[in-house]
């Protein structure tokens, strides 16, 4: 099998545009594995459509680009939303925020029904206790009970850590 010298590689790609489109499609599909957002996969599909067009019409780069762009845009705005909806409505699907419910956290200071902070999976979150009569001390291990906007609603794992609020 003959090899292509490095200095003639741009010329070779110019004569074999299908290879350029295929390479772009493979790079985009590979990068999609890092994002899992389906955006790069849709662009990859457009690049592969450009590769097929390049095999059919080897000298018509403008047509290849138009086909690749059209397929990518149609995929992005029609196919991708349908695919995301299907994934997100699958049984058992929980996004990264919803996965916090049920996990353990550590109190980073006292937590009341009004305010507090916890450390969950290395991230600091605003937190509140489940009920207004409970106060959780610094360093206590808590369970994430639910999510209310940007606050985690927590309760102490150890019943001894559930205390009455300090009086002023």
Structure, described:
The structure is a single chain. The chain is α+β, with helices and mostly antiparallel strands and 168 residues long. The protein has 2 domains: 8-88, no CATH class; 98-157, OB fold (Dihydrolipoamide Acetyltransferase, E2P), CATH 2.40.50. It has helices at residues 9-15, 17-35, 39-56, 61-88, and strands at 104-107, 117-120, 123-129, 141-148, 151-156. A 5-stranded mixed beta barrel has the order 1-2-3-5-4. The longest helix has 28 residues, at 61-88. It is elongated, with a radius of gyration of 27 Å. The mean pLDDT is 86.
Secondary structure: elements and pairs:
Elements: H1 9-15, H2 17-35, H3 39-56, H4 61-88, E1 104-107, E2 117-120, E3 123-129, E4 141-148, E5 151-156
Parallel strand pairs: 3-5
Antiparallel strand pairs: 1-2, 1-4, 2-3, 4-5
Helix pairs in contact: 1-2, 2-3, 3-4
What is this entry, summarized?
Helix content is 43%, strand content 17%.
**Anisotropy-based shape:** elongated
Please tell me how large the radius of gyration is.
27 Å
Provide the number of structural domains.
2
N→C terminal distance = 85 Å
The major beta sheet can be summarized as:
5 strands, mixed, barrel
- Helical proportion, percent range: 40-55%
Which structural class do the helices and strands define? alpha+beta
Q: What count of helical segments does DSSP give?
A: 4
Q: Could you list the spans in which at least 5 consecutive residues all have pLDDT below 50?
A: none
What is the subunit arrangement here?
A: single chain
Strand fraction equals 15-25%
- The count of DSSP E runs of length 2 or more, i.e. the number of strands, is 5
SSE order, one letter for each helix or strand: HHHHEEEEE
The largest beta-sheet arranges its strands as 1-2-3-5-4
What is the mean pLDDT? 86
């Amino acid at each position: 099998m003959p090899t292509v010298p490095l200095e003639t590689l741009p010329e070779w790609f110019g004569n074999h545009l299908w290879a350029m489109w295929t390479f772009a499609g493979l790079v985009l599909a590979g990068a999609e594995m890092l994002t899992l957002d389906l955006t790069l996969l849709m662009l990859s599909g457009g690049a592969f459509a450009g590769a097929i067009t390049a095999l059919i019409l080897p000298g018509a780069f403008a047509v290849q680009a138009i086909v690749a762009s059209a397929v990518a845009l149609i995929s992005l705005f029609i196919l991708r939303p349908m695919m995301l909806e299907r994934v997100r409505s699958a049984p058992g699907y929980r996004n990264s925020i919803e996965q916090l419910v049920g996990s353990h956290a550590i109190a980073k200071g006292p937590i009341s029904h009004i305010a507090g902070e916890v450390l969950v999976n290395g991230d600091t979150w605003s937190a509140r206790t489940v009920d207004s009569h409970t106060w959780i001390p610094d360093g206590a291990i808590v369970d994430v009970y639910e999510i209310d906007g940007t606050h985690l609603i927590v309760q102490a794992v150890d019943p001894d850590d559930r205390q009455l609020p300090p009086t002023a």
